[in-house]
Write a structure and sequence with these properties.
6 helices; eight-stranded mixed beta sheet; alpha+beta; Glyoxalase-like_dom; 2,3-Dihydroxybiphenyl 1,2-Dioxygenase, domain 1; VOC_core; Glyas_Bleomycin-R_OHBP_Dase; VOC domain-containing protein
């Protein structure tokens, strides 16, 4: 029985050391980046979002060290920048938390929070969320998992923010590198009640649910085989490696210029140019 209150991947969180510099970098890569958001004093973090349909990316940075963001700071110290966690869309976070509890995963939360949002007309509104997390120790491939219920979708999915010069449209895959792809894929499959599948080249895929992006577990060698000629410097041996993004390839190639590497029919941003994240633009 699949989880009833989780639809699939909602957004990917890219942990960065300098939030404003990371945002400027992603603008140079042809993404439309939201105005900066600031979380509560308890959370001590800030973010920029890069909105697609039906999902998005989040650039997350620590503004003030707090107990809440200690795991994120530890991640940066040990791994450097990169995909630190993945959010699922929660239909109802309270019920979703009880669903995973019934499956043996004591949830953290649910927790309500909000952040101010500058709307296109200059007015200030609020983005409101209710989230819950799987236990911190349950991090397949070193990537933490949580679920996010959007109470105010209209202040997050703003049409003006969803058009990108690089032609990006939506997430297709989350790439997680690990020396033990089968073990980490099996762990995630158990957490979200999905079936892991072996792809023709031996990597392991775990559907996240609905029409949302898949998780792909693979070794660093397998990643290099999938995307030859792309330098992988800056990636950990185990952790979130990158995102495959459906896009207009001609627009991506034009926007990325010399940064984009043509590889196996894709246009790829190496992790050194993507704040520790390989970005694979795929026709779609």
């Amino acid at each position: 029985m699949a989880l009833k209150n989780i639809i699939g991947i909602d957004h990917a969180v890219v942990m960065v050391k300098d939030l404003d510099k990371a945002a400027e970098n992603y603008k140079r890569l042809g993404f439309t980046v939201s105005p900066r958001g600031t979380h509560s004093a308890h959370m001590g973090s800030g973010n920029y979002t890069i909105m697609f349909d039906p999902d998005y990316m989040e650039l997350l940075g620590v503004l003030t060290p707090t107990e809440h963001n200690a795991p994120a700071r530890t991640y940066l110290e040990e791994n450097g920048e990169g995909i630190e966690r993945i959010a699922f869309t929660a239909v109802d976070s309270a019920e979703g938390a009880e669903e995973i509890r019934a499956r043996g995963y004591p949830p953290i939360g649910p927790t309500d929070f909000e952040r101010p949002v500058t709307m296109p007309d200059g007015t200030i509104s609020a983005a409101k969320f209710r989230t819950f997390q799987w236990p911190t120790a349950e991090a397949p491939g070193g990537v933490r998992m949580f679920a996010c219920q959007h109470k105010t979708r209209e202040t997050v999915w703003i049409p003006e923010l969803m058009k990108h010069a690089n032609g990006a449209k939506r997430l297709k895959q989350v790439l997680i590198i690990t020396p033990e792809p089968a073990d980490d894929a099996a762990q995630l499959a158990s957490m979200i009640d999905r079936e892991a599948m072996v792809e023709p080249d031996g990597v392991i895929a775990v559907p996240s649910g609905g029409d949302r992006a898949d998780f792909i577990f693979l070794t660093k060698t397998q990643l290099g085989t999938r995307y030859p000629d792309v330098p992988l410097a800056g990636l950990p041996e185990r952790g979130g490696a990158g995102l495959v993004i459906a896009a207009d390839l001609a627009a991506a190639e034009k926007a990325l210029g010399a940064v984009g590497v043509k590889s196996a029919g894709h246009v790829v941003v190496p992790p050194a140019e993507g704040n520790g994240t390989i970005l694979v633009f795929e026709k779609g």
